[in-house]
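Tutorial handout. Part one gives the primary structure; part two gives the three-dimensional structure as tokens.
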Amino acid sequence: MPHDDPDHPHSLLPPEPALRVKALETILTRKGLVDPAALEEIIDTYQNRIGPKNGAQVVAKAWADPAFRAQLMEDATAAVTALGFYGRQGEHIVAVENTAEQHNLVVCTLCSCYPWPLLGIPPAWYKSDAYRARAVREPRKVLADFGVTLPDGTAVRVWDSTAEVRYLVIPMRPKGTEGLSEEALTALVSRDSMIGTALAAEPAP
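Part two.
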């Protein structure tokens, strides 16, 4: 695997994600490969204007529209592209659906591959060594750390994102939401629920 290669660029960076980002930014700026102003614009776009809003819209539409859900599960890349959600770090998307029988959890064990066009910038904990190691080794304990306790009969499947494939978790639709609009459903979907470290929120009583 390229990430196991000691000569791979990732191996030359500090282990702390924030320091890694800063080191890369400094190196690329000094080499004239990155315009700091352009970089700030990109960060603002993904952190503040996109965030997880796009992904939440996809999930809400899948809950409300059976035809779209079928398309999403068959070819998520085409389905989200048709909604205008595409771009770098989102070229190949696979949707995995939570059910009573299986809960899905996404990790990138080798770096921090993540579907930016759908979820925005990955959170610091997603990029941390601890999460990347423990999510595979003890996923139920990781979920418990996030406040998610699953029934004993629910299996946990861990999906390892790569440079080729990113995953989008479709959380289970909360009960009592049958009459809600897609806009209202969107508000129940969090970034963490689309990674698998949370459940969709319950509707207000």
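Part three, for discussion. Residues 1-14 have pLDDT under 50 and may be disordered. The CA atoms of residues 2 and 60 lie 37 Å apart.
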